[in-house]
Amino acid sequence: MDFSWLIWFLVVVVFLSIGFWILKALIMPVVPPGAQPIVWAIIGIALLIGLLIFVSSGSGFFHGGFHTR
Length: 69
Hints:
By secondary structure, the chain is mostly helical. The protein has two helices and no strands.
């Protein structure tokens, strides 16, 4: 069984964690408290749209784009 997807998943989780930390520690203190929920909502919607594009593309993990035979 090929576990390369697990390695890619862990890489993505690490990069998303670093990105979240950068947003939380460096960018959000600059944004006014009343606007922070709106900024997080926009980021969440952008991530959901990106996920939908990735899943529906023909070259993603779910369509065999990274499998070698």
